[in-house]
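Re: S-adenosylmethionine structure - here you go.
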Amino acid sequence: MELLVDSYGRRIKSMRISITDKCNFRCTYCMPAEGLPWLKKAEILSYEEIERIATVAVSIGIEQIRLTGGEPLVRRDIPDLVRQLRKIEGLRSLSLTTNGILLKQLAGALSEAGLTRINVSLDSLMREKFAKLTRRDQLTRVLEGLKELEQYPSIHPIKVNAVAIRDYSEEEVLEFVRLARRKAYVIRWIEFMPLDADQIWRKEDILSGAELKALIEDEYGPLVPITTGDPSETARRYTFSDGIGEVGFINPVSEPFCATCDRIRLTADGQLRTCLFATEETDLRAILRSNASDDDLAKVIRQAVWNKELKHYIGDTRFKRANRSMSMIGG
Ligand code: SAM
């Protein structure tokens, strides 16, 4: 079989599927306080439609799928979707990104449905800061959700992702590190990107992975790199000199990894995006709903992938903001 490749020779293996644009948080760096105009039900792909696209995508080379949103756990019966996707032959990894608020109720059902990987987004361990950033006073519930996850060892590692923002994240770096060393959580910081609906992003707000690493090394000494040999890995991963705990830095702004990008994204309304910062999309929903065959669908996906953007151009005069915010794309 011909592999799924783009015109720059990158092999595309990973697909992020947003299953809803709705979210129960209103993170200031992502969504306005009043939310966004939500998609109508008929605009959103049904689970059957998602399964069909996923099956076709896997048949032509996608190996990893991550479910995201909005907040994926607000969509009803998500364990059913997980159960169905798990059955796709050739799919090597199925994961989920969540804000964690509904994990206490859903971790068991997700594990039972066959989910084995989860990322929980958590930007602050301090109640007031958390409430201000997410505009929801729900830190306790997220921490309870994480605790609940620990009951299901088939879901591992538990990854905790924090957006790094200057003058916000520095004071808690070491607290997050202690968490990574105390619990079986892998902590990763991701640089703030210009994908916020309110357009508050400023270059000065970026707190780079290198700066965070230096703060940690001041306290713990040199971090020890963990290498996996997977060139498409987005995180620079490290452990400590005693081997206890793992932290990582995802540096899309200060050290872009577009050259090894292996990702495409499907929005909740069925638009295929070949770059987080894409300004154009391919309407897979229209194709799905037009009685097209799986072969037709595969052809359209291949063509879109072939035209994948070279890079995101953040920090360059050629940079253009994406036509949707992170919650509408699926982070
Ligand atoms: N609701 C889920 C969650 O919280 O993980 C999934 C969707 S959320 C859009 C996915 C990730 O994108 C979260 O970790 C969030 O912090 C991150 N994110 C949102 N806006 C961002 C931005 N402007 N820069 C960097 N990361 C961002």
